[in-house]
Amino acid sequence: MPDAAALDRDPASGTSSPIVQAAERLVVRIEALVSQVAELKADNAALRREVREALALFDRAGDAAAPVRTTRRTAAPATRHAKSRRRGKGPKGRATPASVTPDIVLATIGKLGSASASEIAKELSVLGDQVSGRAVRWLAERAGAATVVGDDGQLRYRLPSTPPRSL
Fold first, then answer.
1. pTM, whole model, 2 decimals?
2. Domain positions in the chain
């Protein structure tokens, strides 16, 4: 069985094979890159030291230029315990009253005829349930109310020409 060195050589000429030569060139390039990285790390460390020294110089210059305070500062607020957390808001819950349903919105549309979401919300609010125009729009769309752009450019709701589908 031939030895490993014999497999690396070209049998016709006795020189190293092209693959071995390419691998040796790559090794040389990698070694050069490693030395460059080492030099760059040393330069980086030196630059970091210089930046730290420059910042310390700025701090000393700022302290020297600052006017002397004659009044005493108030104490900083006590830091909170590390394990304590700020309590967030609880769940918001339902903003629209449960008594305002899509059927109630359709009934109000039927009472008013053609009305904007704001007008429907005002009518419902007069009846005792505070509700926003946004909620009315959402409920009216789910209830199947027909929408028409009025003369004033506002979206107006009216009863659908066909009865809504029941689920």
1. 0.42
2. 16-65, 102-158
